[in-house]
C-alpha cells in the first residue's frame, strides 16, 4: 500500500468523524440547552479534537504531495508506510491533546467557580450552564492557542506548500513545453 493512501484514509476518517459527530455536536452546542458545565465542555472539546484531526490530516496530505513532487526520485524510500503511520499517529495524538486541553482546566470554568450568569449552581456541586461555546471555552485558549497556533499556522504552512507545488509543476510544464518545441524543429 502506498504511503499516500494512509494519509488519504486518515483524512477520510477525520472528515467522516467531523460529519458524523462534530457537526451534530456543534448544532447541539449552538442551541444552548441547559446542561452540566463539564458535559458541555466535553462536547465542545470533542468538536475541537475532530476539527483539529481534519486540519492535521490535510497538512499531512499537503506535505506528502510536496515531497512526492519535490524529491520524486527519493520519495518511496523517504515516505514509507511505516513512517506515514507514525506521522498519522502523532497528528491524531496531537489532535486529542489540543482538543482536550480545556477538559484539563484551560476552560471557561471561572464562571462556574464565581457562579455568575448564565451559570446556575446546583445542590450536588455541579454547575449548570446554557451549553454555548462561549460559556465553556476560554477565549485565550480559543484565539491565541487554538486559532493562531493550531489552525492558522497549519493553514499557512499548507498555503506555502501548495504555492511551492504550483511553482514546481509550472516549471516542469515549461520544461516539457520547451523540450517538445525543440524536438519539433528539424
UniProtKB/TrEMBL annotation:
Q: Tell me which PROSITE patterns the record gives.
A: G_PROTEIN_RECEP_F1_1 (PS00237), G_PROTEIN_RECEP_F1_2 (PS50262)
Membrane topology, as annotated: Multi-pass membrane protein
- Subcellular location per the Swiss-Prot or TrEMBL entry: Cell membrane
Locate the transmembrane regions by residue number.
7-29, 41-63, 84-106, 143-165
Can you give the residue ranges of the G-protein coupled receptors family 1 profile domain?
Answer: 1-186
Q: Biological process (GO) annotations?
A: adenylate cyclase-activating G protein-coupled receptor signaling pathway; vasodilation
Pfam family for this entry, one:
7tm_1
- Domain of life where this protein originates: Eukaryota
One GO molecular function term?
A: G protein-coupled adenosine receptor activity
Q: Which UniProt keywords apply?
A: Cell membrane, Disulfide bond, G-protein coupled receptor, Glycoprotein, Membrane, Receptor, Transducer, Transmembrane, Transmembrane helix
InterPro entries per the UniProt record, alphabetical: Adenosn_rcpt (IPR001634), GPCR_Rhodpsn (IPR000276), GPCR_Rhodpsn_7TM (IPR017452)
Annotated family: Belongs to the G-protein coupled receptor 1 family.
Name by which UniProt lists this protein: Adenosine receptor A2b-like protein
Query: Lineage in the entry?
Result: Eukaryota, Metazoa, Chordata, Craniata, Vertebrata
